[in-house]
């Protein structure tokens, strides 16, 4: 792209091209700057292709502005910035922001930018009325007390902070406002965090919409700060200055409530700066000690040495750590029940991503292969997961079988819309939708022993599935697309398909698949081994449709044989660890060979892939 803008030829420099990226990095480096993430970068070039001036755009933020020393009297900054403003407007951003050095204030004011916040080493400016409009919105929610929280996710600690702030003298009777951080740089997206706060605060506060005016590490650029250690300090000072100058006056807030921070140094420093800075704006900072809870330890020695009492502050980071480990019970113990559907949604997505990200899956899509598929690849599968992810919390909260059924149809349509009509996750939507609903129903009984919890889950799965089919005139009404190939195979060969397994409460999941996965999940190739176990035990309707019933039976025998060749299993000759390692390497080579053969032949056990995701999800409920 090359444009003539106010008699200056401006060219896009595509950073995806290594030559241009190096050229931009060298240009910025010569001007004492660094290249940061941008959506596009524009430049003015000399006759030899050298960069005279450049500037980038990241969403609605202008970044990485520089002019070479030889061209600083040519006035290239104004047309460059003007062009970026026009491009931002074309993309729907009517309020363009810039973080810049204080010395550049005059230049940007000449282009219609206004100062929003300042710190010793940086300023935030904007050329529209976005902050003014947000403050107008806030004036309808005036309150003396305010909390700003990210809630990634909303925990019992957040709930405690809200209750303590509400009980404070200045936050009586609805005079407390919570502002969620809108920036989507969190494990849970903003719409989910907003709902978690609204549901979890239980009417104790007025939860307003967040805005783009909470300055986060994701938005604040560091390209113009020579010392990167200055970045966090400058970002925090700008955020506090903007709150004191604009947000607090709009709300009429005189006190900001914060939770104490005993662990994270950055958050502790942010709290210190608020105490130093906000009183000058007439805002008192009240710090409330964090709520503590017993540490969930499995080591009896540690518990014994601690006298049986070990406590630690309840933090969102602890919850996220448990979720990363697939431990719903531990995570749910630190969160209110209103947060549980969102934890379950994350774990369902985690299961899909773990299945997709696993390499060496015979016939299936993985990071380095499309397997037997010609119509889908790894990136398309990721798009499919992203499309159905927003429906997961709703499935966990569905109030009726009819609502759950409709959510499944809507999720499938969303998937097909982003994949160009390619069915990437139809079976997973069905199985995980049922599992999410059943898990939410059983979550109140989370203290049950594992065996009792499994029985409760199986009963819930059967009842929910039966209710869905009882309320549907035909099987086809459950889907937005024509009758599945699996349903045709079930009718032709009399095997169990998705419907039959669900109506049985996924009996094989609890009786066979989960115990196997639990036994091997800490061992090498755990996901691949579990997948092979599933292929060997399932009548996979997807595979039968693709290669026929007889070939599918042969595949099951081949897979079972390979599974039996894993070194170090019970009954081996006690070979050394080195020998087992060498044996596993040989086994992985045979698995790779199977992947190549199945891909060439068109063998794709898609049903087993769906059941692997279901097994991973179910394990996270019981772990």
What distance separates the N and C termini? 54 Å
What is the share of helical residues?
A: 40-55%
Portion in strands: 5-15%
**In the CATH hierarchy, what is the class of the largest domain?**
Mainly Alpha
Q: Quick one: CATH superfamily of the largest domain? A: Triphosphoribosyl-dephospho-CoA protein
- How many extended strands? 15
CATH topology of the largest domain: Triphosphoribosyl-dephospho-CoA protein
Summarize the structure.
With 623 residues, the chain is of the alpha/beta class. It has 25 helices and 15 strands.
Jot down its keywords:
623 residues, alpha/beta, Aminopeptidase, Triphosphoribosyl-dephospho-CoA protein, eight-stranded mixed β-sheet, five-stranded parallel β-sheet
Describe the model:
This protein is an alpha/beta fold. The chain contains 25 helices and 15 strands. The protein has three domains: 93 residues, Gcn5-related N-acetyltransferase (GNAT) (Aminopeptidase), CATH 3.40.630.30; 161 residues, Rossmann fold, CATH 3.40.50; 293 residues, Triphosphoribosyl-dephospho-CoA protein (Orthogonal Bundle). The strands form three sheets. Strands 1-2-3-4-5-6-8-7 form an eight-stranded mixed beta sheet, with helices on both faces. A hairpin with a 5-residue loop joins strand 3 and strand 4. Helix 4 crosses helix 7, helix 12 crosses helix 25 and helix 15 crosses helix 17. 43% of the residues are buried.
